[in-house]
Amino acid sequence: MHPMLTIAVKAARRAGSIINQASRNLDILTVSRKSHSDFVSEVDSAAEEAIIKVLMDAYPTHSILAEESGNRGDAKKSEYQWIIDPLDGTTNFLHGFPKYAVSIALLHRGVLSQAVVYDPVSNELFTASRGRGAYLNDQRIRVSKRGLLADSLIGTGIPFRDLSFLEAYLAMFKDIIPKTAGIRRPGSAALDLAYVAAGRYDGFWEIGLSPWDIAAGCLLILEAGGLVSDLEGNENYLKSGQIVAGNPKIFVQLLQIIAPHLTPQLIAANK
Ligand code: IPD
Ligand code: CA
Ligand code: CA
Ligand code: CA
């Protein structure tokens, strides 16, 4: 395993044990709201601090972008930037709904180079290093081979935070539903993308995401032989938070269905 990936795994597992410990007593957690539906608990912060400590002890000169504490170090000066979501799926976690994960990615000169998505409930560890493939625990994973959308299971997420996107999203949703074998919306984008990499979903789309939700998952998919883009088929997904992903055949079909639903607002948000 690449040494930087080994450190990321150590950090993710440490966060995972904090999350597991806390999940036994959800009633005593202090929870606040960042916006009407973006909850944050003391567990998000504690997990994030633990991750940053492991990374900084190993690589004190690297910069960081983390969901709860923001930027640390100078991303322009450092060649390396870690992108951290300490707990992706906080709402699920707070409800004892067992679909949440730790997500850690490393950018090297702006290119995704290492990725970990760790599900502490199932103890599933998804990892990837650029050019070296993607793994679930010790097994190599690949995207599915399904070619027909009608046979495909598609994951998605609802843009419930920025409600201005909702109408355009629902139009896509309505168009995609009858063309697939089924749609799922478990509520952890990081895990959703890991599932595409593992071939559990054939495709995925969501809008209104942040880089920490998707950075690690995107590298997993690319290293598993899948494709990822923004809604227009371009590479701006990390910045825009609009994402389409899947095995190469299903990816193309999703983009085709989405294209007529691209509103001027979505196109502007994609820039
Ligand atoms: C959220 C999850 C969810 C997605 C939201 C994200 P958080 O992350 O990834 O699936 O639909 O947009 O913000 O806030 O639980 O880390
Ligand atoms: Ca959050
Ligand atoms: Ca997240
Ligand atoms: Ca989070």
Number of domains: 2
Query: What are the bound molecules?
Result: D-MYO-inositol-1-phosphate, calcium ion
What oligomeric state do these chains adopt? Answer: single chain
Protein structure class: alpha+beta
Name the helicity range: 25-40%
Distance between the termini: 36 Å
Descriptors for this entry?
single chain; 271 residues; alpha+beta; Fructose-1,6-Bisphosphatase, Chain A, domain 1; D-Maltodextrin-Binding Protein, domain 2; 2 domains; eight-stranded mixed beta sheet; 9 helices; globular; binds D-MYO-inositol-1-phosphate; binds calcium ion; Inositol_monoP_metal-BS; hydrolase
Write structural notes for this entry.
- The protein is α+β, with helices and mostly antiparallel strands and 271 residues long.
- It has two domains: 3-141, Fructose-1,6-Bisphosphatase, Chain A, domain 1 (2-Layer Sandwich), CATH 3.30.540; 149-269, 3-Layer(aba) Sandwich (D-Maltodextrin-Binding Protein, domain 2), CATH 3.40.190.80.
- Helix content is 36%, strand content 27%.
- Helix 5 (189-197) packs parallel to helix 6 (211-223).
- The model has no long low-confidence stretch (mean pLDDT 96).
- The structure holds D-MYO-inositol-1-phosphate (IPD) and calcium ion (CA) (3 copies).
- Its EC number is 3.1.3.25.
- One of its GO terms (molecular function) is metal ion binding.
- It catalyses: a myo-inositol phosphate + H2O = myo-inositol + phosphate.
- This is Inositol-1-monophosphatase.
